[in-house]
Design a protein that fits this description.
There is one protein chain. This protein is 21% helix and 32% strand. It has 156 residues and is an alpha+beta fold. It has a domain of 103 residues. Helix 1 crosses helix 3.
Length: 156
């Protein structure tokens, strides 16, 4: 039975978290899709690789079948401070490393920005993953709404 570690994040926006997870790949190299992610208002139990219920609970869960072969569930639980903690088993931390979490957190920043800017009419154009080594870097491009031109004649 693998031990789970709770890793503190600065993630507060659940929708941006889900979108960021959808930018990532699982241990088998498959993209994580929205239908692979469970979302619960009340935190639900995680399960181990043998289907055994664990004491750990999470609000956002990627079930073991979608994590990778012989895997445990990966979850994110909202703390009393409003921030999510990642819950990753010792076994799965071989793939879901601090670097994986850092890259996902970088995508979280982009997704959070997209949500906030979309509300202001600014559209996301593209993102370029420029990660080098262990340093996740992402360039994101946004398109500002077209402004109406106002012409004022100051000369008469």
């Amino acid at each position: 039975m693998s031990h789970y570690a709770n890793l503190q994040t600065n993630i507060t926006d659940q929708e941006a978290l889900i979108r960021a997870l959808c930018q990532m790949k699982n241990r088998n190299g498959h993209s994580i899709t929205r239908n692979m992610i469970e979302v619960h208002d009340k935190a639900q139990h995680l399960f181990g690789y043998q289907g055994d219920q664990r004491s750990q609970t999470a609000n956002v869960i990627i079930r073991r079948q979608n994590v990778g072969g012989a895997a445990n569930d990966v979850g994110f639980v909202r703390g009393s401070n409003g921030k999510f903690q990642a819950i990753i088993s010792e076994y799965d931390s071989g793939y879901y490393t601090a670097e994986w979490l850092a890259k996902m957190t970088t995508w979280y920043g982009v997704e959070k920005s997209k949500i906030e800017l979309d509300a202001k009419g600014i559209k996301y154009v593209e993102g370029v993953d420029k990660a080098q080594g262990n340093c996740p870097t992402l360039e994101a491009f946004f398109e500002a709404p077209k402004a109406k031109k106002t012409v004022t004649n100051f000369f008469g």
